[in-house]
Amino acid sequence: MEIKTNQIPALEFRNVCLSFDEKQVLSDISFRLERGEMIFITGESGSGKSVMLRLAIALEHPDSGQVLIEGQDVGQFNEVKLLKLRGGRMGMVFQEDSLFTGLSVFENVAFRLEEHGIGATEIEKQVAEVLKFVGLDEKAEKLPAELSGGMRRRLEIARALVGWPSIMLFDEPASGLDPLTSHKVLDLIIRARDVYGISSIYVTKKLDEIPYLATHYARQTERGTTIEAAADGCTPRTRAMVLEKGRIVFAGSVSEFEASTLPAVVRLTHAENGTVISHFETTDPWDKSRRPRERIL
Question: Which CATH fold would you assign to the domain 5-89+165-289?
Answer without folding.
Answer: Rossmann fold (3.40.50)
